[in-house]
């Protein structure tokens, strides 16, 4: 069956029927579409076809018929900008994030990374911003690159979750319906490596500026918080708790069916995973993960929480990504989703090693970038190649010899695979003290010698007490040095080094 002579239905393994979870006519969940008749649309043709489906009302009809989830395959999406162009063709109003538990980076207009927590940390079934009164009307995902293993996106019907819960635990559903759910998010000051790793300033510091005093900072943050909650508390350690009480059992407007919209299952899964189910609810990652409560503040029975999570995970349909895929979810149909482990990694050929671009993030200043080279002989050890200093006094070269990877700590950096380099460039190695860090400026191999050939940035910030500035000086820092080093490495190493992707430096967070 063709849609506006542009797209046709197709089936994939794991699809289910909406009749399995709702008293509705037979229809696939999710709906899967691809260009009809072997059509290979250009980007502009894709934009035009999507816009026609959206403006005609066909998109809404298909979404309702198929449980609120649509997979579109075969689109020419290769870059974040391609995705942005096609996503805007739907004509949706952009969602503004207020309070932001996960760390995300803007990569194109209204396009962000989904979650920059470590790939080994699970993300449990949830509705986007289901814990807040401000949430998106639609949400979409796309796959720019596909991992070799894992990385599927499971989607779950909120209609089906409530239906099964009503059958197995009607009292629980009644309690949720009457009381709602209370979520408490505690935001620290420092970065935390977590799937909900945002701190106060990532979540609510959009208007904080360098030089703001503490009173001004708190005033600006509280103003943002009040946009979706008037219940918050500052703690002695500078952290901030924000409380949200929202309904989770809701009525579907079109079908008059009971459905689910919230983050109860993800909040409980995260709390259990990090061992934070009891006060003070601080997990093994150093972050706070209090379990959800009934809206009146009473404790939700753990066996009910376990049941809801088990039902959600057992009902999921796995979407295995292909490059250019786009998934569209309609929260009105209360489709939950989760993310499974699967980071795009370019596996090294024999005789090559992976090296990593790491970024310590900062809410006010430029984040610190460095290259981490894992040891070939001492598992878990490695060398940090970077420059240290500041734009006023200048920078200096440093090699940090680590007894364990930098991301093993609770305040570790974001990391991206920079590329693969031939073993001969990173041998021999420096000695690594167990569980300690040493710092030196002595190169032990070709890559380290090459790093010293790239000058460390000189001072580039005018002194406030110096003479009046003339021509504006462009500030250089560790980020510009890393970019210069990578360019120099590509030039000198030739086939001995390959970037994981051409735009990898553009994807690294600058703050």
Provide a descriptive summary of the structure in words.
With 511 residues, this protein is of the alpha+beta class. The protein has 3 domains: 2-113 and 125-149 and 319-339, Double-stranded beta-helix (4-Layer Sandwich); 161-312, Double-stranded beta-helix; 352-507, no CATH class. It is 23% helix and 24% strand. It is built from 12 helices and 27 strands. The protein has helices at 43-55, 58-65, 80-88, 158-168, 170-179, 200-204, 214-225, 264-273, 302-314, 446-453, 478-493, 504-507, and strands at 2-3, 7-9, 16-17, 28-29, 31-35, 69-72, 106-108, 111-112, 123-126, 139-142, 153-157, 181-187, 231-234, 240-246, 249-251, 258-260, 293-294, 317-319, 326-329, 335-339, 352-360, 368-374, 382-390, 394-402, 414-422, 437-440, 497-499. The strands form 7 sheets. The protein has a 7-stranded antiparallel sheet with strand order 26-24-23-22-21-25-27, covered by helices on one side. It has a 6-stranded mixed sheet with strand order 1-2-5-6-19-10, with helices on one face. A 4-stranded antiparallel sheet has the order 9-20-11-18. Strand 23 (382-390) and strand 24 form a beta hairpin. Helix 4 crosses helix 5 (170-179) and helix 8 (264-273) packs across helix 9 (302-314). The longest helix has 16 residues, at 478-493. The radius of gyration is 25 Å and the shape is globular.
């Amino acid at each position: 069956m063709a849609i506006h002579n542009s797209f046709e239905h197709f089936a994939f393994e794991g699809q289910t029927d909406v009749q399995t979870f709702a008293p509705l006519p037979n229809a696939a969940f999710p709906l899967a579409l691809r260009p009809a008749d072997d059509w290979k649309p250009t980007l502009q043709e894709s934009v035009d076809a999507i816009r026609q489906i959206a403006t005609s009302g066909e998109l809404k009809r298909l979404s309702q018929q198929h449980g609120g989830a649509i997979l579109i395959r075969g689109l020419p999406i290769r870059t974040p900008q391609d995705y942005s162009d096609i996503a805007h063709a739907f004509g949706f109003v952009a969602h503004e994030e207020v309070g932001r538990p996960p760390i995300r980076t803007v990569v194109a207009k209204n396009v962000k990374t989904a979650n920059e927590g470590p790939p080994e940390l699970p993300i449990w079934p949830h509705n986007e911003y289901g814990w807040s009164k401000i949430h998106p009307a639609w949400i979409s995902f796309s796959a720019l690159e596909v991992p070799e293993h894992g990385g599927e996106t499971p989607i779950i019907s909120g209609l089906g979750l409530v239906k099964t819960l009503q059958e197995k635990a009607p009292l629980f559903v009644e309690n949720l319906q009457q009381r709602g759910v209370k979520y408490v998010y505690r935001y620290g000051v420092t970065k935390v490596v977590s799937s909900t790793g945002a701190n106060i300033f990532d979540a609510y510091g959009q208007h904080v500026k360098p030089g703001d005093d503490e009173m001004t900072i708190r005033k600006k943050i509280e103003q943002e918080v009040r946009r979706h909650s008037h219940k918050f508390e500052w703690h002695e350690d500078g952290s901030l708790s924000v409380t949200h009480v929202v309904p989770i059992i809701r009525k579907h407007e079109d079908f008059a069916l009971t459905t689910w919209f919230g983050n109860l299952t993800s909040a409980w899964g995260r709390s259990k995973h990090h061992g934070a189910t009891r006060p003070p609810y601080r997990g093994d990652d150093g972050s706070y993960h209090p379990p959800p409560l009934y809206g009146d503040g009473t404790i939700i029975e753990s066996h009910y929480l376990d049941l809801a999570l088990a039902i959600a995970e057992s009902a999921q349909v796995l979407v295995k990504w292909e490059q250019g895929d786009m998934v569209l979810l309609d929260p009105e149909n209360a489709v939950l989703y989760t993310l499974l482990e699967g980071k795009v990694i370019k596996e090294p050929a024999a005789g090559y090693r992976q090296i990593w671009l790491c970024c310590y993030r900062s809410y006010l200043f430029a984040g610190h970038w460095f290259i981490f080279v894992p040891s070939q002989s001492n598992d878990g050890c490695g060398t940090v190649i970077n420059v240290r200093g500041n734009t006023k006094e200048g920078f200096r070269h440093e090699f940090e010899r680590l007894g364990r990877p930098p991301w093993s700590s609770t305040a570790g950096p974001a990391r991206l695979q920079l590329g693969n380099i031939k073993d001969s460039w990173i041998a021999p190695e420096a000695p690594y003290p167990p569980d300690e860090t040493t710092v030196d400026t002595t190169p032990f191999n070709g890559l380290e010698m090459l790093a010293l050939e790239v000058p460390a940035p000189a001072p580039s910030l005018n002194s406030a007490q110096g003479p009046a500035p003339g021509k504006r000086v462009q500030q250089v820092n560790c980020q510009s040095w890393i970019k210069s080093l990578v360019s120099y490495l590509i030039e000198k190493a030739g086939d001995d080094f390959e970037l994981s992707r051409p735009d990898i430096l553009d994807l690294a967070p600058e703050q």
